Here is the input.
Amino acid sequence: MATHVDGHIRHGGDDDPTPASAKTGAVRDRHAKIKQRVNTKGFVTIENLAAEFGVTPQTIRRDIKVLSREGSIHRYHGGAGVPPSTENVAYTQRKVLCLDEKQRIARLVAGQIPDHASLFINIGTTTEEIAKSLCDHDRLRVITNSLNVASILAGNENFEVIVAGGLVRPRDGGIVGPLTIDFIQQFRVDYGIIGISGIDLDGTLLDFDYREVRAARAIIDNSRKVFLAADHTKFGRNAMVRLGSIGEIDRLFTDRLPVESVMEALGASDVELHVADGVAGRFAPGGETPEEPWNDREPE
Here is the structure.
């Protein structure tokens, strides 16, 4: 598995007088461990988490509030639990969650798409950011089941934008249903760009709406290369509907290195990992020290 990077990871403390940039690493590490405890136990109390991590209950409450907004955990009185698998975070909230991370991922994806390419782009706030980053390309032919993506790309007069038929979801402009699937299956494109609501720790791709999953499945099946864009909050996130396995994609674009079990799934399937911020090198499935630095390849 090749890991491609675009920056450096920072490390540091949290409740000590270290610079803000150094604190970020410790906070991220604590957040990851809180999510792990919640997924393992189902529910954890603020008091137990504060004692385990050696921080104040107020700090843990702030952590839970942040993770709850991301949809990673569910906030309860006195603690945190596993989020429901049947309901996604509201679209208006998702648009601003991890916006900087999504924009960096979007630029990374856009850099891998050559001019004159044909694309599928599916529903999602991350794919909307990718659409924005593609606007400077030349002569793309894009098929999408998102009115928002189509609206963004329509600003480039050199693009050919084709919108799938079907049922429009008022909340996010997504187009779903049997007509959407039938339409997508009429094409065979160079690149399929998809987002996802959750990636289970074994690499299973998950979403909340079975109709959206069926459309994404059709995109995977009818693309020569499949690019999955997902920020770090999607790893270990629970959702009810199974799309497929991470081994069915060609490249994963994210903003942080995934947890070890997902790294192993990527390595076992020879999926290329592109990280917007990380440590340069090739990573073995077990997460060993990186070998020689690896630079992003030119688009095919």
About this structure: The domain at 91-275 is CATH 3.40.50.1360 (Rossmann fold). The chain has ten helices and 16 strands. The chain has two domains: 9-81, 91-275. Confidence is low (pLDDT under 50) at residues 7-23, 279-300.
